[in-house]
Amino acid sequence: MAQRFQYLNEQKSCLRLTHQLLDQASVETMLQSLNQHFSDIAAAYHCSVLVDGPMAAPCLYIPTADGSIRCFEEASLLQNGPLRVVQTSRTVLHLDCEEYRQRYPRLTVSIRPEPFGDYLAIPILNHRRLMGLLEITRSDTGRFDDDEIAQLELVAEAVGVALEHLQSRLALSFEQGQLCEERDDFHVLVNVTNAVITERSVESLVDKIAREIHCYFGISAISVCLPETDPHNLMLYNAFFVQPGKPQETQMRISAATSICQQVLESGEILIRQLTPDDPLASNEHQLFNLWPATSHQLCLIPIKFAGQVLGVLKLAQADENCFKGSRLQLLAQVAERTAIAVDNARAYQEINRLKDNLVQENHYLSEQVESLSHQQFDEIIGRSNAITQVLKQVELVAKTDCSVLLLGETGTGKEVFARAIHRLSPRSGKRMIKMNCAAMPAGLLESDLFGHEKGAFTGASKERLGRFEMAHQSSLFLDEVGDMPLELQPKLLRVLQEQEFERVGGNRLINVDVRLIAATNRDLKQMVADKEFRSDLFYRLNVFPIRLPPLSERRDDIPHLAKYFVFRASKHMGRNIDSIPSRVLRQLQEMEWPGNIRELQNVIERAVLLSSGNILQLPPELGSYQQPEEPPLIRPQPAPHRSAEEDDEYQRIITVLQETNGIVAGPRGAAHKLGLKRTTLLSRMKRLGIDKESVLV
């Protein structure tokens, strides 16, 4: 009976120990509770626990003299110690002090330098899985007998149950913490998105995003850097929270070459860098060092990307040292993504407002432009050289059809003028031609401008808008610089050309149109197709009837006619009275190179008209030796015994006027008008006096 009561007491003691161990929150407190249990039952045992995690290195928890727990983590010693034997045998390892010291001398020095009586290493098993070792040493000289070993094996089982419970609880706690962290992160992203997505100006956007970042991350120095139209400059928007909730906001234009943000704009990667006051890239950070004096500041620069394009940089400083690491840095990168959407929307809204404000003026201008065009076939096309004559024949041939036309030629050759001529000669001339320059339109707005958009298609789309294709219904659409059209938009253009139908941005309704396309480019589309920069199927669809416009260098015979036309038009526009172009000026214009073609010639003539002091055209000084033409030289009459002095004076006067008018006799700018004579009267006098106008101009 006494043995039965002893057995029951042992079982109760083991059960109480199990409950105590289950209540512990860590391996350290569990080991302290276990040693306290042996102290309470007056057992001369000292316990240590070696936890062998499947994912982590083994760790030995050892009690110290002051009651604290020391963690020994030298994996090589632990793995080559008793753990290896127990892992193989899955049985108790029983050694005396001398045997332990002989087998494991390094462990003796590191862990158990003090002598002990006896040593047990009992495997901690749970569902046949080895979780670690329970190491027990005796403080007396006794030996563990079989009953004690059996009792301690029960204790090891209790430790195994407690360890399993502890690991499960820690795993659940870790997962719960992760879920809470993810919930908080989503909460931050939702709040940031709601705060910035409705902002329509960059200034208010920076203010909102800075307040949200400061609130959730505790970052005090927040800046947004955006590139300017000039690639050499950047615009920096700063918000510094010197006092909580009251940011100091500044804007400044900085040089891209001396800004640390330029590195991120070029690389598109996150940059974390320590910046000192004497760093060359710290010249734009004087406000940061003035508000927070320090030997260095850690800066985190995150690219603001949208649709694969770097729109700007989010620059952060004055934060906790762990803020720019791990999950916090990933969350800040997600905040930058939301900021990118808001920045793109703000810029798009500003551009839409600008286009909307100019829409009435643009339509008015286009209407006036169409109404002012003469109904003659080629009134805007000056010149009768062989090169231009061949082009005009092609224009007449293709104009009366509906096939697509591709105008090819250098910049300034007058592609738009020929496009208008094709439209005027076509059956669609009753409606005005719609134009669009693909290179001048921002990539984000090009699709909306071409195909229109529905109300609410994007931020700022407060009402539906007709696109250029709908405006050009039953008319002609002229797409200038079609080679600069983004690759992702080309399939939609191809579909319109093939099927004559499309969908507006943000809509799902098919819209049918009847549009004749005239495209123009100064780029080599064939080479672009080979370089995968232009779709081959779109190229073949545009290249139905290509027309190459000759550069001005191939039509030098037309330069005098073009120069006279531009002089007349510029003089009328500027209120000048330029009615004469010296022949040597025309020869000089014909001999010059014209890389800018007709547009360059027109600009030179307009400048010459502006700089000419009299009624004779003088070229600008930078164009060479003919810039200051002298008065037309007098041609002295040859002595003639039969010519009187009065006839000599008349001879010289006619010669002078013919040189001033470049040999023109009739018309408002002719010599007859200047002399106050009829054309026939002047011609008869020239014949009587022996004047040949061709020899006068030599």
Strand order of the largest sheet: 3-2-1-6-5-4
CATH superfamily of the largest domain: P-loop containing nucleotide triphosphate hydrolases
Instruction: Kindly report how far apart the N and C termini lie.
Output: 148 Å
Q: What is the number of helical segments per DSSP (H or I, 4+ residues)?
A: 25
Briefly note the structural class of the backbone.
alpha+beta
> On the 0-100 scale, what is the average pLDDT?
82
Number of domains: 5
CATH architecture of the largest domain: 3-Layer(aba) Sandwich
Number of strands: 19
- Backbone shape: elongated
* CATH fold category name of the largest domain: Rossmann fold
Rg over C-alpha atoms, rounded to the nearest angstrom: 46 Å
What's the quaternary structure here? single chain
Percent in helix: 40-55%
Instruction: Describe the largest sheet.
Output: 6 strands, antiparallel
Low-confidence runs of at least 5 consecutive residues: 368-377, 625-641
How much of the sequence lies in strands comes to 15-25%
CATH classification, class level of the largest domain: Alpha Beta
Domain Sigma-54 factor interaction: 381-610
Protein name: Formate hydrogenlyase transcriptional activator FlhA
InterPro entries: AAA+_ATPase (IPR003593), AAA_lid_NorR (IPR058031), GAF (IPR003018), GAF-like_dom_sf (IPR029016), Homeodomain-like_sf (IPR009057), P-loop_NTPase (IPR027417), Sigma_54_int (IPR002078), Sigma_54_int_dom_ATP-bd_1 (IPR025662)
Organism: Shewanella yunxiaonensis
